[in-house]
Amino acid sequence: PGLASSIALVFYLGLMLVALNVLDITLTLPGIAGIILNIGMAVDANVIIFTRIKEELAKGKSVQSGIKIGFDKALSAIIDGNVTTLIAAAVLYVKGSGTVKGFATTLALGIILSMFTALVITKLNAMYSLGMDDVKYFGVEKPRKPIHFVENRLKFFCISGAIILACVVTLGVNKASRCGGNILNYGLDFLGGTTYDITFPDKTDLNADLKSDLEKLFSKTAKSNDVVISEVAGRNALSVKTVELNEKQRNTLNATLEKTYGVDEKNIENQNISASVSDDMKSDAVTAVVIAVICMLIYIWFRFKDVIFAGSAVLALIHDVIAVILVYGLTKISVGNTFIACMLTIVGYSINATIVIFDRIRENLQVHSSEEALAEVVNESITQTLTRSINTSLTTIITVVVLAILGVDSVKDFAIPLLAGFICGGYSSVCITGTLWYSWKRVQFKRKKAKK
Question: In this structure, which of 248, 342, 381, 424 has its CB flanked by the most CB atoms within 10 Å?
């Protein structure tokens, strides 16, 4: 299984690079986040499939039969998890700006490719035909004693309540202590500022040294370290965003660019981003998250035919978003355009993990559906999927930790909230969603009894 998963992952990465090249998609920081999420989901699909195969082998099925049944049983969880994440990608593409549209594109493209590699490349019929027809190649899922998640639900709810309270307090303190009364450290995309588009002579190499020199020049002139530099696709040009500059500062910058870098005055364009545009961006960010969550709720309600499943999943998503906002508030990381991509990456990751657990609960309910068996069903379902939850969380977290350690400052500012979101998403999926569903389901049973 490990070998098959690795081969499928290599295929996925190769196909992703080819697709990015063929479609001429600019790889931005949010785009990298989309690929990270897709790597996690590609690994996740393989983990789900092979866990199912091991379970079937434990029941005494033959290897060939176990492979077929394992794939069939894993299919619904994989499709539902990927479709809900595609919903997030669609909302981002419609509501996001340029860089966020890039994230949505890589996310949607990656989901399609990861499903293809998981369900086609990973399929082990070819390896089975090559002689890998012994149970020892796949392993057998060992029976596990169910963990008492339901019995400890109040502890989990208290931890989540503490996270929500800490977020409210942090935002309140930030609003009271910061100039301008902002609850978060809004970046240029939200507060407005000045944007420069500088087209350099063709012989000029837009290397890291040039970007570093420009960053120092703009920081010194603007008297602010809030400077964002990016390349302009299709031109030998750089786009620079910084705080709002007055006429004198802009004239000084123009003169320096002409003298030092030989840039023609007509190739220097600058404009101020107005407050109204910034307000629209804030509104779009909130709207994107709200629309995505509502669409996910409707889809889960439709697929699971139970509004309690949908409500529990959405509350867990809100919980994860609040936890990430807490990290932004505590660390003072700049909240910019990538904030939207970060939030919906976490929403997509968290909902995918939740779907896997809910899919198992739905399956086990077909055997035990009485009120007395609910706790047993939830505990057993979460325990059965726990290996998958841990493995998927670790593979995704490892990727983000590497980015947080080795990345430049802008990458670190993006990776740290992602890391917090993935950890919180894994926690909420395992400890909150199933137990929350159980609590609501008990209330539903009691109401039905009262009506009788």
Answer: 342
